[in-house]
Amino acid sequence: MSKAQPQGERGFTLLEVLIALVVAVIVVAIAVPASRGMAQRARRGEAIAALTRITRAEERYFLEHNRYTAQLAERPPAGLGLTPPAPGHYTFSVEVHNTGVAAYTARAALAAAADADTRCSSFTINQSGIRAARDARGIDRTDECWAGAAP
Predict the structure, then answer these.
(1) In the chain, N or C: fewer CB atoms in 10 Å?
(2) In angstroms, rounded to a whole number, what is the distance separating the alpha carbons of residues 131 and 144?
(3) Cα angle at 48 between 149 and 126, to 5 degrees?
(4) pTM of structure
């Protein structure tokens, strides 16, 4: 024997379900870009941290050997002896300039397989601490990309 449901307790109407679905879609539409932006800022921070480690290692190397080196992973005296950053969103390199003055430029370049953070596709820093950053089209984005990094 089945009981008849009371008139006021039938469940959700189609309109109520549609309203709940629209609200959920709006929340997801706001959350996804925000989380993507946070992830890009975190990756930029990792690139800046790696460049800072390279810069410090180059200065220590220069104090001992009176020159800079382009070798990141090689053990001293051939290189800096740094553990390479895990493969990922940026690749790292150092270019040593032999122009009569000891100089180098450390670079973090966006890897091809990385998430499309085209606003900060490359970072550089040199022996004088001069920083630069460019987007995928080569436009200077230094202030935006290095924002928040320690001087």
Answers:
(1) N
(2) 12
(3) 95
(4) 0.74
Quote the longest CA-to-CA distance of the chain. Answer: 99
Q: What is the pLDDT of residue 141?
A: 94
Give me the domain span that covers residue 55: 14-145
Do residues 71 and 95 touch, judged by C-beta distance below 8 A? Answer: no
Is 81 a residue whose pLDDT tops 60? Answer: yes
Q: What are phi and psi of 13, to 5 degrees?
A: -85, 165
Beta bridge partners, 110, equal 90
Would you state the structure tokens that stand for residue 60, as one six-digit string?
């220590």
Residue 4 lies in a domain: no
Give how many domains the chain has, as a whole number: 1
Phi, psi of 117 (to 5 degrees): -90, 75
Beta bridge partners of residue 105, listed in sequence order: 95, 126
* Cα–Cα nearest to 44, from 112, 140, 122: 122
Both structure tokens of 62: 């220069």
Give the confidence band of 113 by pLDDT, cuts at 50, 70, 90. low
